[in-house]
Amino acid sequence: MTADETIAPDSPRATRPKDRKQQILSAAADLFVRDGFPQVTMGAIAEKVGITAGALYRHYPNKAELLASVVRRSFESFPPVERNAPFDEVIADSCSVAVSHRELSPLWTRQLQYLPVDDQTELRARLRAMNRAFGELIRSRREDLTAREAGLLAWSIQSILASPGHFTVSIPQPEFAAQLASACHSVAFADIVGSKRSSTKRDAVLRPASRRERLLQGAITLFGQNGIHKTSMEDIGAAAGVSGPSLYTHFDSKEAILDAALDRGTHTLWITLNSALRSNDDPRNALREIVHGYVELVNSWLSIATLAASPLGAPKSAKAQQREYVGEWVALLRECRSDLDKAQAQVLVHAALAVIHDGSRGSRKVDFSIGDLQILATAVLGLSAVD
Question: pLDDT at position 1, please?
Answer without folding.
Answer: 39
